[in-house]
UniProtKB/TrEMBL annotation:
Pfam families hit by this protein: Epimerase
SUPFAM superfamilies, alphabetized: NAD(P)-binding Rossmann-fold domains
Protein name, entry field: UDP-glucuronate 4-epimerase
Record key words, sorted: NAD
Domain NAD-dependent epimerase/dehydratase: from-to ranges: 3-268
CDD domains xrefs: UDP_GE_SDE_e (cd05253)
Keyword NAD: yes
The keyword NAD belongs to this UniProt entry's keyword annotation: yes
Amino acid sequence: MKILVTGAAGFIGYHVAKKLLEAGHEVVGLDNINDYYSPQLKYDRLKELGIQQNAAAEFLSPCSSQSWSAFKFVRMQLEDRVALPTLFKEENFDVVCHLAAQAGVRYSLENPESYIDSNIVGFLNILECCRHHEIEHLVYASSSSVYGLNKEVPFKVSDSVDHPISLYAASKKSNELMAHTYSHLFNIPTTGLRFFTVYGPWGRPDMALFLFTDAIIKGEPIQVFNHGKMERDFTYIDDIVNGITKIVEGEIASRHESNQLYKVYNIGNNNSVKLMDFIEAIENSVGKKAEKKLMPIQPGDVIRTWADVSELIRDYKYRPNTEVKTGVDKFVRWFKEYYKV
């Protein structure tokens, strides 16, 4: 298939693009390469896909030494209502895997406009392009953040998501509502994936695993929010990517017949891990104890997440299963190699 992967220079997008290329698909990657975190990390991910940064850092070209002939990269804003439809018209995609978004819960308190621009306006533009260019299937990233103040665990897809506690979470719930509308009105098969705390090599520098590993190696204190009384369903990147690709490659003809064009799934490890146990796993992998600075809970944070993945198992015979210790070890090895520690 010919697949558009948005957010291809991002953490999850990079891994998904690579997996799809390895499976023999033709992939067009799209990203605006913003400065929410180090653009150099994004350029380095793209280099792994055979795209290199030129001297001006504005345009990217194939890297002759390791180029994927089936990969093309386009630098573009999702909000561009002229360039995006032109790209769809020129490339004639079969499937869209929409992973681009303004990420981060706490950053949404400081820069709310970017979440509306990228996550709402950008998503509308993607939906419109899918509508007008006969896209077979739209797979898009949602988030466990939509569960907000829900108390019952594990979180089920059937649970109410009416109480988001960050603009980021609200934008992701909005995406699900918008996708439902377009599936209903225009017969577009859409699948939303609620990711649960994804971690692993090439991860984002604003995520806890990255921040903790960096600080512990440097001998600096780590900030432990809610005095460590938090739990997360940590999900290793390979598990997320394998789930995404199963859905992207999955047969969807039956969804027209059953009138189930709109679907949402949890993708998580189906296991809630205490934050202090997660920190201990990092300490063991690094070989050094952390100096912990206990802090109050931050606005927008939830205390516990835990994914019920029964619907994913039922429909795709798939469930994530990487243990935290294994995933953390792989991340720390990558971190030390990438930063030459």
